[in-house]
Write a structure and sequence with these properties.
Layout lengths: L1 E3 L2 E3 L4 H22 L9 H18 L72 E3 L7 H6 L6 E3 L2 E3 L11 H11 L10 E5 L5 H7 L4 E6 L7 H8 L3 E3 L14 E7 L11 H9 E10 L5 H4 L7 H17 L2 E7 L2 E6 L3 H6 L65 H21 L10 E4 L6 H4 L7 E7 L6 H6 L4 E4 L12 E7 L1 H5 L5 H11 E12 H13 L2 E7 L7 E8 L11
Parallel strand pairs: 6-7, 6-9, 7-8, 9-10, 13-14, 13-16, 14-15, 16-17
Antiparallel strand pairs: 1-2, 3-5, 4-5, 10-12, 11-12, 17-19, 18-19
């Protein structure tokens, strides 16, 4: 269309051009129709393929998966504490920047071990809870370094065939009970059910987390595999929740706004270095209104500086720098008492709006930053805000424990198909399933089973159904599935992201029971069944159990492979007796390496 004297004038050349294009398209279609080799097939290629192969593939899938019987050799005795993705043998390959070599670095496929990890010589069935909190067999965790280095701080001490745990620590030489009593005076919310979930960074032998269990607080004790030798293994041997990990360059494997409280007792994390990057990660995983408690340098520097090999001026400067960083991240000083200082994460959106100022450090993360992405996700130097659509994520808005366990969390609506109704249905379903499980495995719910893992949970229903049993559950959500882990934390349970194509962040022989529900159906297209079962064997204690709920397609192949793991398994019906799904109830046998010499 052209403009002439203010009037629209149509071009006379457009009509013939349109006719030419129309005629050419018609001729092309006609010739294609005549000369096409498949001229009688008018379905698109993809649809034709589906129609042709669907009946055959249905026949194939109807037949159970078959795997040849396989036997696995024993690993060398020096692999008794093998942690594939945090293996000190491979540390030299990685950077020392911010101790990132201690993060997860899994071996490539060609370096994976296809052998059974042996127990130490003289290994015994672990002492049962609650006695295990105070003592464990020395031969089960035969590490002397931590005993020699920390005995003066009463972390643990060796007596005869056992390690004893007096409950001491660097900042609580008089015992963890007295330390937590003081902390509860500083934070009254620790006593009334407001605080339910906590994380202890640099946990030692998890005395803090162990003490809190009797006070209704469930703690994830976090520590790397470092020169303290097996902090996490000691924790799990005691029956206290723990996981291998370090705040370094990658986010911790938890969603945002999850923990009610975080704790550091002289954990040696340089909080004020690298622009406060480690504090930013604590801020991300702590829910609005949550508490961060710190004891040790530079808290109470006025009275403690002489024992820290520093000057009072240096410690004063460090404390001021810490306070400035925390304030810039929307933390406020809640209270100080003796060696303990507590800050609270703001739940007021006005503070986070101030972070958007051009010259503010740290800045607020942009909207493109996924706050819950936490599997090999780099820590970014910015503050993760809280989505303002949430009205019941802040600590003060959540129901108190134990009411929150069976209350549908607000964040369930973020899950595809999730709602209060589906949450209630899942909760009810697991109560029914648990009654059946306890018939199949009478040890479930007794002191024979303490450390439990639900390997592919949805909302934590399995763990909720066991809440009155003397055990705890690590709820695992696949890093490749839809994230439901925030829902697990909102109801007062603990868990982690994980990819079962890789090894889990724990030591061998650390769980009494592993449960999975359709894991191989969901992940077999990515993860080799054999390697998943080998990993299950690594982390399962001798005489420990596995409940494997799977489709009938996989169940016989799994049972065949477990024979090579030296497990005893039996196939059972589900609570509804359906043909399409079966349950394997397995027990790992206790065996000793034939390559070991008796000590």
């Amino acid at each position: 269309m052209k403009q002439k004297d203010g009037k629209a004038v149509h071009s006379s050349r457009k009509f013939p051009m349109f006719m030419i294009l129309f005629v050419m398209c018609g001729i092309s279609f006609y010739l294609g129709r005549i000369f096409s080799p498949g001229k009688d097939k008018y379905l698109p290629p993809k649809v034709v393929r589906i129609v042709e192969v669907a009946p055959e593939s249905a026949k194939i899938f109807a037949q159970p998966l078959q795997i040849k019987n396989v036997t696995f050799p024993e690993c060398s005795p020096d692999f008794q504490d093998y942690t594939p993705c945090t293996d000190p043998r491979r540390w030299r390959k990685y950077s020392s920047h911010r101790l990132s070599f201690m993060e997860r670095h899994c071996p490539p496929i060609m370096e994976r071990k296809e052998c059974l990890v042996p127990p130490p010589a003289g290994y015994k069935t672990p002492i049962r809870w609650p006695k295990s909190r105070d003592e464990c067999w020395y031969r089960n965790v035969p590490y002397d370094w931590i005993n020699k280095q920390k005995s003066n701080q009463h972390w643990l001490k060796k007596e005869g065939e056992k390690f004893l745990f007096p409950g001491g620590g660097t900042m609580f030489p008089n015992g963890v009970g007295e330390y937590v009593d003081l902390m509860q005076k500083v934070i009254p919310e620790m006593k009334d059910g407001t605080i339910r979930t906590a994380i202890d960074t640099g946990c030692g032998v998890a005395s803090w987390g162990g003490d809190l269990l009797d006070r209704g607080i469930l703690t994830v004790s976090l520590a790397p595999r470092d020169n303290h030798e097996a902090q996490v293994q000691f924790a799990l041997e005691r029956g206290v929740p723990a996981i291998l990990g370090i705040i370094s360059t990658q986010r911790l494997p938890f969603p945002s706004n999850s923990f009610d409280m975080a704790h550091c007792s002289r954990c040696l994390i340089p909080w004020t270095e690298f622009g406060g990057i480690y504090l930013l990660e604590i801020h991300r995983i702590l829910r609005p209104g949550g508490f961060w408690a710190l004891s040790g340098p530079p808290v109470n520097y006025e009275n403690r500086w002489k024992g820290w090999n520093t000057t009072i001026q240096e410690q004063k400067s460090d404390y001021q720098k810490l306070q400035t960083l925390l304030t810039s991240m929307c933390f406020t000083l809640y209270k100080k008492k003796d060696d303990i200082a507590v800050w609270q994460k703001s739940s007021n959106n006005s503070c986070y709006k101030q972070l958007q100022a051009p010259d503010h450090y740290p800045p607020k993360c942009d909207d493109g930053t996924e706050p819950d992405s936490a599997w090999y996700t780099p820590i970014r130097p910015c503050v993760v805000g809280t989505d303002q659509k949430y009205k019941q994520v802040a600590l003060k808005t959540l129901p108190k424990w134990p009411e929150r366990l069976h209350t549908a969390p607000e964040r369930v609506s973020d899950v595809h198909g999730g709602s209060s109704g589906t949450f209630k249905h899942d909760d009810s379903k697991w109560k029914t399933r648990m009654k059946h499980y306890k018939k199949l495995l009478p040890a479930l719910g007794t002191d024979k089973i303490r450390n439990v893992m639900d390997m592919n949970t949805l909302y934590g229903g399995f763990a909720a159904a066991l809440i009155d049993s003397p055990l705890w559950v690590m709820n695992v959500v696949s890093s490749y599935s839809e994230s439901t882990l925030a829902v697990v934390f909102d109801r007062g349970l603990i868990g982690t992201y994980h990819d079962w194509c890789e090894a889990f962040s724990t030591y061998p022989r650390t769980y009494d029971l592993l449960h999975l529900d359709g894991l191989f159906t969901a992940e077999s297209h990515r993860c080799d069944v054999k390697y998943v079962l080998l990993e299950m064997d690594r982390i399962l204690r001798p005489n420990g159990y596995a409940i494997i709920r799977e489709s009938s397609y996989f169940i016989d192949a799994i049972a065949s492979t477990t024979k090579g793991l030296r497990w005893g398994c039996r196939k059972e019906d589900t609570e509804y007796g359906v043909k399409q799904e079966k349950i394997l109830v397995c027990q790992k046998k206790l065996w000793y390496s034939s390559k070991q010499t008796s000590a």
